[in-house]
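Before going further, learn to read the protein records used in this course. The integers have meaning only within a learned vocabulary of local backbone shapes. The record below shows the convention in full.
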Amino acid sequence: MGTLDHVDLELLSALSDDPRATVVALADRLGLSRNTVQARMARLERTGVFLSFERSLSASALGFPIEAFVQVMVRQADLPPIIAELALIPEIVQVHGLSGPVDLLVRVACRDTQHLFETDARILAVDGVERTETSLAMGEVIGYRVKPLMELARRESKQSHP
């Protein structure tokens, strides 16, 4: 992934403000040509700046109001097949590999506490999973965000290229 310049950061900021903005609207807002915006968007997509174009959906709205984080300790040598097996469990909505005593942080969404208990048992049944510790998510206090990072990058970009 290359370095983002001031125009890229302005474009990303505009998209953050209005994720549904059209290329024409972005071009008008930023004072750029439509072709310039399209070319930059294509480059940003190619270089992996955009994580996903799918809409974020509420698990609760889908009937899964209980969210939990499951800390999973595994046999390190078996990590690839463990991850493949975990990917087959539909209640798992996200997994992060970690350093330290916990190997994987697994985010799950369930209908109720019994469903959570059953989902945890399915995770434990995966060959190579040695132990889990489950914590209920009581509420999201700061959601996933990159806007503050973008603002920091924009300020730093302006300071290094006045």
About this structure: The CA atoms of residues 73 and 102 lie 5 Å apart. The mean pLDDT is 92. The chain has six helices and four strands. The two ends are 24 Å apart (CA to CA).
